[in-house]
Amino acid sequence: MDQLFNRKYIIQGLFVLIALILLGKLFYMQVISDKYFLSANNNALRKIYTYPARGVILDRHNNVLAQNQPTYDLLVTPNQVKPFDTLSLCKIIGIDMVQFREKFHKAIVQSRYQETIFQKLIPVETYASLQEKMFNYRGFSVRKRTIRYYPDSIAAQFLGFMREVNPTDIEKHAGYYKPGDYIGKSGIEREYETVLRGTKGVTNMLYNAHNVAQGSYANGKLDSLAISGDQLTSTIDSRIQKLGEELLANKVGSIVAIEPSTGEILAFVSSPGYDPNRLVGNKFSPNYQEIYGNPNRPFVVRPIQGGYSPGSAFKPLDALIALSEGVVDPNTTFNCPGYYIAGNRRFKCEHVDGNISLRRGIARSCNTYFYNIFAKLMTKNGSSYAKQHITYEDWQNKVRKFGIGDTLGIDFPGEKAYKLYRAADYDKLHRGKYWGNTSIMSVAIGQGEINTTPLQMANIMAIIANRGYYLKPHVVKAIGNGKSIAPRYKEKHSVGIDPRYFEPVIDGMEDAVNQSWGTATESRLQNIIMCGKTGTVQNSRGKNHSVFIGFAPRDNPKIAIAVIVENGGYGGAYAAPIASYLTEKYLTDSLSGRRINGSTIEMYKEANLLPVFTTKPLIKPLSKPDSLKKTDSLKKTIPVKTKVAQNQPNKLAIKPKDNATSK
Amino acid sequence: MQHQSNRFFFNVDWITILIYVALCAIGFLNIYSVKFNPDKSEAFSFAAEYGKQLIFIITGLVLGLSILLFDAKFFSVFAPVIYGVTIVLLLIVLVIGRNVGGNQAWIPIGSFRLQPSEFAKFGTALLLARYISSFNLKLNSLKPILISAAIIILPMTLIMLQPDAGSMLVFLSFMFPLYREGLPGNLLIIFWGAVLLFILNLFLSPYLLISAILLIGALFIYTNRKRQQKMISIGIITLIAVAYLFVAKFMFNNVLQPHQRTRIELILGLSKDNKGAGYNVIQSKIAIGSGQATGRGFLQGTQTKLKYVPAQSTDFIFSTIGEEWGFVGCFVVIGLYIFLLLRIVNIAERQRSSFSRIYGYCIACIFFFHVFINIGMAIGIMPVIGIPLPFISYGGSSLWSFTILLFIFLKLDSNRMGFI
């Protein structure tokens, strides 16, 4: 035995000492104190969750866009239930005996001893009559919670909807959600879920054998209060949002308006829309399926998911790059004989202008002018394939700086990135064969391999309005009281073009709206200089899309806007008038009631441009059997068409009209 | 020769095996009780947890007895290999492991899940025993202490990456065998003193703590006022302790990541009701307190039946014992454990080979740590660290690991007359 042998006693002593401490504490807990003793009859300690009020969503002028309304869940603890008048309960909550048995059985399967939801989302009116009779229904209890209410019924896709959590959500959020809780599933509700939801409160409540609460355990020392969600101030202006939705009623399209100096989004319209109040409470499921089944896909958030060729709206950008590269100056003229010949192809122009300068070229939206510019740009370093390859790569990098070809990083879920071709992509497209400016000429006028979201188009206008920079577009102005937004929305992003190159381009855009020879005269405003550009976008889905982008006023611009009306024809036909009305409303807070192209604003609102589905809708309604299968093709069109009409939000009255009304 | 080989079973310490079987049986009964459902009277099922546990116990026993058939030299010779294998397993689990409850601690093998951190314990115990027993090593110089520490810290680090704080902390128990083998006691005092200060630092106000340290330092200096040398060293230690407070606070607030901070706070029970840890403890305490002196009786525990205590067959199995068997049952269980621990230490001290002795201390301290933390957690005097109660908690990996730990020792002991 060595001299360390004695340490054995120290270690053994430690074992015994700790054992005595454990036994001492156990003796105290089990024999001496009755603090921890609960008799077999009253041993139920349950966690009761109190749900916080969800944060309210406001518009930029503090008008309420989304608030809360109370609703109630009926809970049951199966082993506490005594025989009672089940029929009366069924009557109150509006179910039949079969459903009652089903629900009760389900509750038993879940747990005999713990509360489970029996009937959820009981409206206030039902709750009033239920409450009077509750004493009859032993084992049942009611829990209050809140659901959303949208006072103006606007901005459905913008706000998004809430839905019961699924197992994936529960797992992802590390135990915050319990089955039956609600979570923001789309739009702002989703993006700002953690801010809006607040924190659930917990009460460790003691119950006796009769399931009567005996008070909080340990005097509430372990309880916590529910903390309400933070209020969100969005950047939306509900006046123009509402007007925009009305103007796009019965049309497929999108409107995005941005405040250039801040990047705040003023309007975020996606049409067709739906009444957000339809996706609330116990009406959720049937309405969700119906909206989901609409062939015009109201759930697509077109401002950030719709991909459109910018068309002529791309021309200002062309001009800016050409000016900054020095291949043209504002006085450079090109001859427009009504077409442009590139290689062995002939591209049409809409008009014959003769010698035309930059300013007039923009105002007249002269294709020839921009084909010439583009050819000059692409061949400025030489016209060999290798040189043009490098020049194109350089050019598209400059275009990317305008926020095209990738997401803009808006604080909103689901933004899509549309591809802008790199030189290598064209190599692939042409399968290794040489290509040059003549093969990709359509890009010059915003057609072909170029796609942008409406948000990106509006952002380009914000860049021009700011003379060369933008702030990332975003939808939330303030979180809670004084909590500021993410710093990335306060950074200026320069596009690397000197401000002096912007004025000539803006001159052209001013003329486009304000001179008789302009293409966007429909958007002209009194006393306000609007600058803009129309686009008429060819597409594979039928009639051209009507596009307008612009900003106003010319000096110190307050609003940059992009309007796309699918299958609306010329830019001046629908997009420009709609932009005009919205801008007028935003800048003057009134509408003068003027006619544009002879039509009143009401006529624009009522115009119906919805596509007629002669074939099956793109997406089948979820659960409805295809009863139309065996009917002939004529009959097929009719029910689908009427269905489309029925799907419109109720408040936008539908007046059946022909497809191309009002012009 | 024949006499020697037949001694395999004769020399085995049957009393220890008896305690082992008793603890396993207690475990089985209580797991049965937790899973027993008064609503549905069902036949005994091997698919239920108690059925599986019975399989684990039987296979564990077979495993243990087959360990007795090994040559006792095997364990000391192959210690580095076994240690290496457990380290490799710990690495594998980080790559292909299944994530259960936030810890990536399990390797799925068919329908079973292997938990390498359980097996890392005996790998580490074996290598530590082998290393310290070699070349008449003295554990009072720096190099052997550092090497021993490295052997312990390597698996700890890998387990922390899973991250499984509970299993990681178990490795701290290796400090006691080191102490037995000559690690200066002051080192232990300094280590635990630093840990204690770190924890107090989080609970108490710094001013209070600093004044307390200064006061104690002054007191010691006063009592040693005749010996200048000692006064100076006490003064230096006091100042170091105060400086340590600041450094620790700074490290905690500025160097650690927020999630690491939360983890520490969670281990110490500082953050309230995180993932319901506080709730588990209340429920467990109520269950145990409701057992009173003699308990509610087998299968009669209502807290147990109503599933108010989460993880009741694994980490909180002691609450069932407390509720159904009362203080008497708790006394018996703790008594069995203490008897087992003291017996292991006594057996260890009678070994001729220092390898066997060190290994014995290692497993005694591992068992001790598990028992102390697990029961302490169930009665609310220890933070909630999810580690199993040896031989009683539900779970194949832990039961087998404890069985292997124990039976290797029994084998070494049965061979105590030979040289290893």
From TrEMBL, chain A:
Its EC number is 3.4.16.4. The keyword Repeat does not apply. One of its GO terms (molecular function) is serine-type D-Ala-D-Ala carboxypeptidase activity. Signal peptide: none annotated. It is an enzyme of class 3 (hydrolase). Residues 253-581 form the Penicillin-binding protein transpeptidase domain. Keywords: Carboxypeptidase, Cell inner membrane, Cell membrane, Cell shape, Cell wall biogenesis/degradation, Hydrolase, Membrane, Peptidoglycan synthesis, Protease, Transmembrane, Transmembrane helix. Pfam families: PBP_dimer, Transpeptidase. The chain crosses the membrane at residues 9-28. Gene3D superfamilies: DD-peptidase/beta-lactamase superfamily, Penicillin-binding protein 2a (Domain 2), Penicillin-binding protein 2a, domain 3. Its main location: membrane. Residues 50-212 form the Penicillin-binding protein dimerisation domain. It is a single-pass membrane protein. It is found in: Cell membrane; Membrane. It comes from the Bacteria. The keyword Transmembrane helix applies. This is Penicillin-binding protein 2. It comes from Pedobacter boryungensis. The lineage of its organism: Bacteria, Pseudomonadati, Bacteroidota, Sphingobacteriia, Sphingobacteriales.
UniProtKB/TrEMBL annotation, chain B:
PROSITE patterns: FTSW_RODA_SPOVE. InterPro entries: Cell_cycle_FtsW-rel_CS, FtsW/RodA, RodA/MrdB. Keywords: Cell membrane, Cell shape, Cell wall biogenesis/degradation, Glycosyltransferase, Membrane, Peptidoglycan synthesis, Transferase, Transmembrane, Transmembrane helix. It comes from the Bacteria. It is found in: Membrane. The chain crosses the membrane at residues 12-33, 53-70, 77-96, 144-161, 182-200, 231-252, 325-346, 358-385, 391-410. It is a multi-pass membrane protein. Its main location: membrane. The keyword Transmembrane applies. This is Cell wall polymerase. It comes from Pedobacter boryungensis.
